[in-house]
Amino acid sequence: MNYTENYRGIKIDVQSVNLDISEAVQAEIRGSIDKLSRFTNVINAVDIYFKNEGQGASANRIVGMRVGIPGPDVFSEEKGDNWISLLKAVTDKNVRQLQKGK
User: Fold this and answer.
1) Which stretches within 4-82 are classed as H helix?
2) Which residue among 42, 46, 75, 98 sits deepest, i.e. has the most Cβ atoms within 10 Å of its Cβ?
3) Cα(37)–Cα(18) distance, rounded to whole angstroms?
4) pLDDT tens, 58-79?
């Protein structure tokens, strides 16, 4: 499932291979954008990808997020079990990168 959304003037592009993104995860994506917006007011776009890696008990979920800002973009990726907690983790990593860039 891939979808694009314009949220508060920020283009959000979500890519997920063979996965459906629930409304709860979509709401968390918007919350992540709100959090990132507190640290910079010039976000042009946010690209997020969700993917499963491996199979069975050793399967990992991966979430990556690229925040398009003037100058170099910030990017982070996290592996784990829960989509929402992974999304929060990559958001926090990107916030730290934005704070370093100021």
Assistant:
1) 23-37
2) 46
3) 30
4) 788 999 999 999 999 999 999 9
